[in-house]
Amino acid sequence: MTCKLTSFIRLPLFLFVSLIGIIHSLINLVRIKPDIIIGLGGYGSVLPVVAAYITGIPIVLIEQNVIPGRANLAMAKWADVVLCHWEGSKKRFKKGHVAVTGVPIRSGIIENETCAGDNPFGLDFQKKTLLIMGGSQGAQAINRVMLQSIPKLQALIPDLQIIHLTGKHGYQEAEEAYNGMGVSSFVSEFYNDIGAAYRLSDLVISRSGANTIAEITAVGIPAILIPYPYATDNHQYWNAYELSRVGGA
């Protein structure tokens, strides 16, 4: 009984909050007067897209994953075009005009933002370099496994050097581990010029989020992808699967 009552209360509250959000979006659209609305999926895109549809502003949706998000699937019927990263995503949209274009990335991913004489990592450009990262939030599981694997990697490649972007958690542990093992390394929670890290590296070990995949495919660096197992609809697994299917990982 309590569960039914809670659900009965939540639905009107959700509809009321959504209505307020649409009104707020309409006010902003009237004030800003945009020429186009771009939606990247997720609940945060829905209300502005609905407002754009009401006011007749052209709508473009960007779907970065192989498995489209539920918000984009629902909004596709209002969009002028849906831009996908993957050919496999196209067939999942039953409504709307869909085109496969890839995902926009920063120009600095491909273009060298670092001066030729600079060496921000303090590493040897001639040695084999492994880039380890867990996406924008880092990945503690990847951090732990990689630190445990370093002795075996050293045995295979004695002069291996490592760029390890740990995320918020694991920086201190990684820094101490590499120093203790005498491994040439650059350890940081995050690094803004990720393109420079890609260009120095021979292999990347990473999660398989859409942006990461877009970047490594643009650069053309070999990759070992470890999907985040709790991602919505297991989309990181399918991103990695699709990339490996076409020989990209």
What does this structure look like?
- This protein is an alpha/beta fold and 249 residues long.
- It has two domains: 17-104, Glycogen Phosphorylase B (Rossmann fold, 3-Layer(aba) Sandwich), CATH 3.40.50.2000; 115-245, 3-Layer(aba) Sandwich (Rossmann fold).
- The protein is built from nine helices and nine strands.
- The strands form two sheets. A five-stranded parallel sheet has the order 7-6-5-8-9, with helices on both faces.
- Helix 1 (2-32) packs across helix 2 (43-55) and helix 5 (140-156) runs parallel beside helix 6.
- The chain starts with a helix and ends with a helix.
- The mean pLDDT is 86.
Short description:
It is built from 9 helices and 9 strands. The protein has helices spanning 2-32, 43-55, 70-75, 87-90, 140-156, 171-181, 194-200, 210-219, 235-245, and strands at 37-39, 59-63, 81-84, 98-100, 129-133, 161-165, 185-188, 203-206, 223-225. α6 links the parallel β6 (161-165) and β7.
Write the layout of secondary structure elements.
Blueprint: H1 2-32, E1 37-39, H2 43-55, E2 59-63, H3 70-75, E3 81-84, H4 87-90, E4 98-100, E5 129-133, H5 140-156, E6 161-165, H6 171-181, E7 185-188, H7 194-200, E8 203-206, H8 210-219, E9 223-225, H9 235-245
Parallel strand pairs: 1-2, 2-3, 3-4, 5-6, 5-8, 6-7, 8-9
Helix pairs in contact: 1-2, 5-6
Q: What is the level-2 CATH architecture name of the largest domain?
A: 3-Layer(aba) Sandwich
The count of helical stretches stands at 9
CATH superfamily of the largest domain: Glycogen Phosphorylase B
Helix content: 40-55%
- CATH topology of the largest domain, by name, is Rossmann fold
How many structural domains does the protein architecture include?
2
- Poorly predicted parts: none
CATH class category label of the largest domain: Alpha Beta
**Strand coverage percent:** 5-15%
**Total count of strands:** 9
Mean pLDDT rating: 86
Main sheet overview: 5 strands, parallel
Overall, the morphology is elongated
Order of helices and strands: HEHEHEHEEHEHEHEHEH
Biggest sheet, spatial arrangement of strands: 7-6-5-8-9
* Helix-and-strand structural type: alpha/beta
The end-to-end distance, rounded to whole angstroms, is: 51 Å
Rg over alpha carbons: 22 Å
